[in-house]
Design goal:
Chain lengths: 394, 160
């Protein structure tokens, strides 16, 4: 589709981020001149090996881990699959019960569904209207046959940040392993795996201005998680396959930059988000803010525009060069509305009208002013032709 | 967005016949906001049974709005019987096609048009061949446009 404007405003940083120039510059030599297989013993191979070691240190530093505790994967999804499925299989002699939440990413939920088909029992914890789990409920659900608790660090749709340290404590007290999907949290909130006490943690490069196709699983020293991909000796024999050299190098650089930038990044995003929300609240009536504004990822906003449908809003914004996402069923490949918004009690008809805006490092105040203007026009236009209105109600 | 063709985008961006009609001769609604799409059709019918005007109001996604626009265009100028013969496939063809996944959920036109004509027929004491066996209030379960708003989660979740 041709857009009516040259202007591009990207507000979907939770979906993915652009690779930063410094990251790309770091990656480029490893495509061409320094392309050796890290497993090769000659110089160009060893150079690659060293580059991976450096990247491992950089990623480890961002999460407070030892480099030997970081295992590169192809994605956050792969890290989630590895942690959940391999733990379940490994510990099945002890028990077949896993605890997770209703608002996990599909990487987690579908891994759990797979395990259920394999005879495992999965408890999906509810969250409150703000998107947080109840720690007492978690305590109650832990059983003698529970082997794993997997609860996401921060939610991708509503940004809610779970009490990870408290969850880790509960898991530890009951001798249960604790995994957290920190794909959305990385680079947005400080993460110190040692202080938090987590056993496993999934991260991904492309959410922190690194390349797509590379993630990592932190596995605490002492947790002997079984091998996930069998083959050569890569990743300490736990995840075989010739390394994604350029991707890993990019992940390392992105992690380094993210660590340096974290405080400023979080502060800036929060201030931009607050500015945007205040303008939207002042200028667009009949909206609903989904999820709590406290303990939330700094760049995340999720708003329902009542009486209209999200895909239509998304299309109108797209025509003006603005990229956002929606929880509407109409935009999902499975035609189902957001399970996260459902879990926090948003009525289905209002899930259809939800839009997620995620602000990132390249967002400017001017971008947000432009977005408010176009958003306001889009909402007015669609409400005018909608068969549902404030008077008629849903 | 590349998932829609230019014609769909054009009808979505600049929909024809959108808005209210004062004292329509017939009015019909199909779909529901829970399903993500709800289309309301209003028609004006002349004494010689020709639909002289049609308006729509739609809650729904891009393809629902585009198909509302095209469907109202299609029935204007047709006799009531001709309008009753318009099918969702005709609307789809006129739109130049939609992504497969969109077809069931967002093309509500034939039912909404029939409902509007049914309303007109009732109010004016008329009968039409194309309305035989049509019940606008039929349980939407049978005839519903593929709306299955069960949130895809492990079944057990609903029991907790």
């Amino acid at each position: 589709m041709t857009t009516e404007t040259e202007r591009q405003v990207y507000l979907d940083y939770s979906a993915t981020t652009p690779v930063k120039e410094e990251v790309l510059a770091e990656m480029l030599p490893y495509f061409t001149s320094s392309f050796g297989n890290p497993s090769s013993l000659y110089t160009v191979g060893q150079k690659s090996k060293n580059a991976i070691s450096r990247a491992r240190e950089q990623v480890a530093a961002l999460i407070g881990a030892e480099p030997t505790e970081v295992f590169f994967t192809s994605s956050g999804t792969e890290a989630d699959n590895w942690a959940v499925i391999e733990t379940a299989m490994w510990k099945r002699g002890k028990g077949r019960h896993i605890i997770t939440t209703a608002i996990e990413h599909h990487a987690l939920l579908h891994s759990c569904e797979y395990l259920e088909k394999e005879g495992f029992d999965v408890t999906y914890l509810h969250v409150d209207k703000d998107g947080f789990i109840d720690l007492d409920e978690l305590k109650k659900q832990v059983r003698d046959d529970t082997t794993l608790i997997s609860i996401m660090f921060a939610n991708n749709e509503i940004g809610s940040i779970q009490p990870v340290a408290e969850i880790a404590e509960i898991a530890k007290a009951r001798g249960v392993l604790f995994h957290t999907d920190a794909v959305q949290a990385l680079g947005n909130v400080p993460i110190d795996v040692k202080a938090l006490g987590v056993d496993m943690l999934s991260v991904s490069a492309h959410k922190i201005y690194g390349p797509k196709g590379v993630g990592a699983l932190y596995i605490r020293k002492g947790v002997n998680l079984p091998t996930h991909i069998h083959g050569g000796g890569q990743e300490s024999k736990k995840r075989a396959g010739t390394e994604n050299l350029t991707g890993i190098v990019g992940f390392g650089k992105a992690a380094e930059l993210s660590g340096q930038n974290l405080e400023h990044h979080a502060k800036t995003l929060l201030s931009l988000r607050t500015y945007f929300l205040e303008r939207v609240q002042a200028e667009i009536p009949d909206i609903r803010i989904n999820g709590s504004l406290e303990n939330r990822l700094p760049g995340n906003l999720n708003i329902t525009f009542k009486y209209i449908e999200g895909e239509a809003i998304l299309l109108l914004l797209d025509m003006n060069g603005i990229a956002v996402s929606t929880g509407s069923a109409c935009s999902s490949a499975s035609l189902t509305p957001s399970h996260v918004l459902d879990a926090i009690g948003v009525p289905v008809e209002e899930i259809h009208g939800s839009i997620r805006f995620t602000i990132g490092d390249f967002t400017t105040k001017d971008d947000l002013d432009y977005t408010v203007e176009k958003l306001k026009a889009a909402v007015e236009k669609l409400r005018k032709i909608s068969s549902v209105s404030k008077d008629s109600g849903f | 967005m590349s998932m829609y063709n230019d014609k769909v985008i054009e009808h979505f961006s600049n929909p024809h016949n959108a808005g209210d009609m004062e004292n329509p001769d017939g009015e019909g609604v199909y779909g529901s906001p829970v399903c993500g799409d709800m289309m309301k059709i209003m028609i004006r019918v002349s004494e010689d049974d020709v639909i002289t005007d049609a308006k729509f109001k739609t809650f729904g996604c891009g393809s629902a709005i585009a198909s509302s626009s095209v469907a109202t265009d299609m029935v204007i100028g047709k006799t009531v019987e001709e309008a009753l013969a318009v099918t969702n496939q005709n609307v789809l063809d006129e739109l130049g096609g939609l992504p497969a996944i969109k077809i069931h959920c967002s093309v509500l036109a034939d039912h909404a048009i029939k409902s509007a004509i049914f309303d007109y027929a009732q109010k004016h004491g008329k009968t039409y061949k194309g309305l035989e066996g049509f019940d606008p209030n039929a349980d939407e379960q049978d005839d519903h446009h593929g709306c299955d708003m069960e949130i895809h989660l492990p079944e057990k979740l609903s029991d907790l």
